[in-house]
Amino acid sequence: MRKLITPIIIFLLLHLCFTARAQQQDKLLQFLKEELRYNMQELQKQEYAPYHMSMRLSEMYNLNLSSAFGTINGFSEQEGRTVVPQIRLGSPALDNFKYSSQGALTQGKQMSQGAMLPIGDIESFPESIREGIWRETLKRYQYACDQYDKTKAQASVSVADEDKAPSFSVAPVESYYEAPLPVSRCRVDVEAWKKRLNEISVVFKSMPELQSGSATLTFGCDRSYFINTDGTEVVQNRVVARIMLAAQVKAIDGMNLPLNKDYFAYDPADLPDNATIIADARDMVERLRALQKAPVADPFTGPAILSGPASGVFFHEILGHRLEGHRMKSGGQTFKKMVGEQVLPKEFAVYCDPT
User: Fold this and answer.
1) Bridge partners of 1?
2) CB-based contacts of 55: which residues, under 8 Å, 6+ apart?
3) Which range, of 22-26, 212-216, 295-299, averages the lowest pLDDT?
């Protein structure tokens, strides 16, 4: 037994040492940690001193490529770096997030996505990045002060049955680090994918009645940094690839009939081959031909059998959303007063796996 365990322990120790060294050599991570310390120290001098701060920095590359009826009709490529500071004023029992779940400025109806920073080597323009982080931090601090004043006023006149849950909870300090991905993992062969998408979408030309028939590739490579004043450091990579098929026909009675199918993978190499996708596209065409002539289904009340994917979406929409904490504060409050009570039959097991 000792002979089996010893090499494993040695491997784990070497891996931990390598990870720790890579973490210390990550210039962007060290730069971000220094900026968090500086910003926290400066804001501690203000009237409302933050009790907790965090920063999330993301480096993103996104590609969208689309083909319709055998011809490329869309191409876009984006690369960027953003930072989102988060500032909490008051105390965990009551802070500026109490009535503003995101605690951030809004742009129209959308939450602010943070400040855009220069991309490239951190050593090339540290002052530009530093200024961008400070400007966004100051803007969010000013907003946090305004929200905290409103929060205190609203809490002082709250009704008796208002949610008494604290605004913030203590979490363990986490440390997790992934080394940067090689460039080859963060890019795709655009010309090769143009050819593949054209081979797929040309299938839709076999049905002239189609209003649309397309195949789209979306590819993204993100590297995110998250740190907070408790000492948590999490650096992760995320590569995602998706192919989406979409086609639509108009029924004899004028109703628009769309069909969609998509494929998802964490590596483009794991997506189905073209033969599989082309077969699915042909199946979509046959289904649209049948739907075009099919009678309209009348509404009814009764039992229904859902497919696997549909049942997952149904469960997600009907139960999943209503179990989310922020929705219990506003919106669907079905289970707001049922904390600790049974809401499903005992033989029905539900668990959450974030991975």
Assistant:
1) none
2) 32, 35, 36, 83, 84, 85, 86, 133, 225, 226, 227, 228
3) 22-26
